C-alpha cells in the first residue's frame, strides 16, 4: 500500500474512532429499550412489555406469524389477542391495529364490555364493539417485537 493510501486509511480510522462513539452516545436514548409499566390487556389480565427497537414492517411475513394489538391511543390501554402460554402465541411478534371510536367510549363499552368491569380488556370484547359498529379497526399501523410479562396483582 502506498504512503498516501496508508495515510488516508489511518485518517479514516481516526475519524471513525472519534465520530462513532459520539453517534452511539447520541442514539442511545432512541435505542434504549426497557421494562414498561402496565401496557396492555390480554384476556382481562394486565401485561407489561420489554421494549426493543424493532420495526418489522416490509418483511413479508405471513399474517399468521403475528399476534394483534388493538391500540386505542389515549382512550384506554391497548388490548392484545395472545400472551405467552396461549395456543398459537407468536413469541412477541405483533401487528398493531389502530382502533377508533365511532361515537362515545360509553357506547363501545355497552357493545363490548362483556364482563361489566368498565374497560375493554379482552380481544373478544374489542371484536364485539367492532362488530356492533362502535369501534372501527383502522388496520395495521406497525409491526414489531417485544416480550410480554403479566403485571403482578396490585401493581396495575
Distance between termini? 64 Å
**Number of domains in the coordinates?**
2
Which secondary-structure class do the elements indicate? alpha/beta
The main pleated sheet reads as: 6 strands, mixed, barrel
Sheet-strand content, in percent, reads 25-35%
List unreliable stretches of 5+ residues.
1-32
Order of helices and strands: HEEEEEHHE
How are the strands of the largest sheet arranged? 1-2-6-5-3-4
Oligomer type: single chain
On the 0-100 scale, what is the average pLDDT? 79
- Radius of gyration (CA) equals 22 Å
Proportion of helical residues: 25-40%
Based on Cα principal axes, name the global outline. Answer: globular
Number of strands: 6
Quickly count the helices.
3
Protein name: EF-hand domain-containing protein
Organism: Terrabacter carboxydivorans
Keywords: Signal
